[in-house]
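Technical note accompanying the year-one report. For the benefit of new consortium partners, we illustrate the data format agreed upon in the data management plan: each record pairs a sequence with a structure-token string. No post-processing was applied to the example shown here.
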Amino acid sequence: MADDPFSLFDTWFAEARESEPNDPNAMALATVDGDGRPSVRMVLLKGHGPDGFVFYTNRESRKAQDLRANANVALLFHWKSQRRQIRIEGAVTRVSDTESDAYFATRGRDSQLGAWASEQSRPLAARSIFEGRFEAMKFRFEGGDVPRPPHWGGYRVMPQQIEFWQDRAHRLHERRLFVRADGADGDWTEGLLYP
């Protein structure tokens, strides 16, 4: 058995990138609001390693509101072509402005403009309103770089546990659970779970 869940994640993620037809970095992000209501949506993994799993979003969106109310989240990768899942549970922290700026600069220009134009998760009376806002941002930043909006940035999930699930015949699946001992710098223990 491996004692480093990040190495195992790297292996599975590399294999998923080879076989998944779309967005092998897509992961479900589950949050809970201040009233205990859960919500889940797909986001894209944009960085990972022993310091955690990183995604980016509008920091005024519903998910960001949930994260302010309760920093504990769950992530789920499901790679159907590999017949594998990885479940991650942990707490989020905000990514630094420097790191958010660096990632934002790598996005396509239309995605950058969309981050300025969208009031993510808020009601929209008509699609044409959003399209008009997008066109206004194109005009505003014409001929220059698009800076990162102050309301947009990254979050890092520091895992406390990571489960690797592998499909097996007759639903006799293999489940390996890594649990971190006492805090972010703790050692990992590994065990198996019944399918």
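Partners are asked to follow this layout when depositing records. The chain has a mean pLDDT of 95.
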